[in-house]
Amino acid sequence: MRDTVELLEAIGRDASLRRASPEELARALEADGASPALLEMAVHGDSAALTAELGLKHMHVEHQSQTGGHEEVDPDEPGDDGDDEGDEEPNERHDDTNDPSAA
Amino acid sequence: MTTPTPLSIGPRRGSIACVGMGITLGSHLTPLARNCIETADVVFAALSDYVVELWLRRLHPDVRSLQPYYRPGKSRMKTYREWVEVMIAEVRAGRRVCAVFYGHPGIFAWSPHKVIELARAEGYPAYMEPGVSAEDCLYADLGIDPGRVGCQHLEASQLLFFERALDTTGHVILWQLGVVGDRSLGRFRTPDAYRELLVERLCADYPADHEVIVYRAPTLPIEGPHIQRMPLRDFAAAEFTGQETLVLPPAHALKPNVAMRARLDALDAVYGTGAEPTVTA
What we know:
heterodimer; A: mainly alpha; 5 helices; elongated; disordered C terminus; B: alpha/beta; five-stranded mixed β-sheet; 9 helices; 10 strands; globular
């Protein structure tokens, strides 16, 4: 029997389940012996039980600093956007074509 | 599970591949990115959902989360530099490193670009494999084609830190709203008042009742996309987890470029218009 993490991954790669209604998803999950917590989230969108079951942690999602933000109050290192190129104070900058991570 | 054996390509040396996990568990990981993970000596992970990290740990026995390097009040730039240091240290030690980032590893992510640049400068093989990004999901879920009238993507804080010109005839899409206006780089969330200031700035270009979309892509496959539509003036009061993106649809029609159209007429007179000739009876 697959556990919760395996079931979630399997749903993600199953075209018939990825866009299934909550009712269809519930039937498939019950047939696969899914945990009550996973069923609760699939049917009602409530993640509290799943959080408890898997010990879920908050994840930080910012992987880039704000261009023009101050790293710290340090006169020798003003407005570092991390690329070590052309760093200036925010109010002196008008463009950031050097930023390699702009989308 | 069978772990593929990498092809022998000569003497062993350190290398790094920065790959994208995609956004939704099970749906987006490319075969190539998966192979990079499975054949690596060590895997570093910066993901957006802990369930995805749990799944990744089943793909490889040595997955090292980069999350513990974050700390409230600590500049995130310091955190990102530490990520680069721990990754390049393994490369220098002769190990095959795979760094997995949620979405696309090269979009709104500083350390993948930096570690690749550094590794290459030191003579190590280093490359990036793209992944399905939040931007890709947004186009699919909201039915936006960026080729129709264009899309302007900006990190939201730039509208407050700099004088940026917005093209209101195309879509404007603002990212990293959770930390908008934070100049310290030490906060993970700025108060709602900072988003209210962003609304004030946007109202310089858009009417306050302009309908905007607050969007969040699903990280688990049992969720749908999170889509909230509201007048711009109400954006600061939207349900907000910190992972949302703000989409401003066009406010004005494209304005014809009369001068360039006249120039095109002149060129067409010389080279033809490209249209099929009219058939006369």
